Amino acid sequence: MFQATPLPEGSKPRFYEELNRQLEGLLAGERDFIANAANLSALVFNLVPDLNWAGLYLMRGNDLVLGPFQGKPACVRIPVHPAPRGVCGAAAASRQTQLVRNVHDFPGHIACDSASNAEIVVPLLAGDRVIGVLDIDSPTLARFDEDDQRGFETLAATFLRLSDAPS
Predict the structure, then answer these.
(1) Is residue 81 part of a domain?
(2) Domain for residue 167, yes or no?
(3) Total domain count for the chain?
(4) Per-residue confidence in pLDDT tens, the chain, 167 aa
(5) How far apart are CA 73 and CA 133, in angstroms?
(6) Would 67 be classed as within a structural domain?
(7) Residue 103: which of 135, 58, 127 has the closest Cα?
(8) Domain range for 85
(9) pTM of the prediction?
(10) In Å, how far are 44, 51, 108 from 27, measured between CA atoms?
């Protein structure tokens, strides 16, 4: 049985290294994408400070559709093609992580939770296909920086390596 342990205080890189080790332990022996997505969301939401939403959106046709998450109810469907909407749509369309220090300055931001002020979205790739995004929101302006970006990109890579991608 998995048991979360307190994460080290101090440097963010050390924090994310330990969080990634915990994610590896949590997902060990289970390959189901949805089950692992649910546990990734719960782990991030409960152990990363100052968040108000953590979860995944999954590609369904030309849209991202709400997947496993932690936090308040969220927008269900986000267009990606032909014109991406919001930070999640931009991450999926560009295949690049979107680090947004102030979502109110992001053109076309979708305000699912009016308390969100900062957001980071990591695209999830299976080969050359975008299969979804990892979306993290905070009520604090400028909550995320490049250390957070590297940390969440590592978590996303671990999740993808240990999960069977949907077809």
Answers:
(1) yes
(2) no
(3) 1
(4) 566 666 667 789 999 999 999 999 999 999 999 999 999 999 999 999 999 999 999 999 999 999 999 999 999 999 999 889 999 999 999 999 999 999 999 987 787 778 899 999 999 999 999 999 999 999 999 999 999 999 999 999 999 999 999 88
(5) 17
(6) yes
(7) 135
(8) 12-161
(9) 0.94
(10) 13, 22, 35
Question: Tokens 């409960």 sit at which residue?
Answer: 46
Specify the long-range contacts of residues 84-92, CB closer than 8 Å, at least 24 apart: 84/108, 85/110, 86/110, 87/119, 87/121, 87/135, 88/57, 88/64, 88/121, 88/133, 88/135, 89/64, 90/121, 91/121, 91/122, 91/123, 91/133, 92/57, 92/59, 92/64, 92/123, 92/130, 92/132, 92/133
> What type of residue is 22?
Q
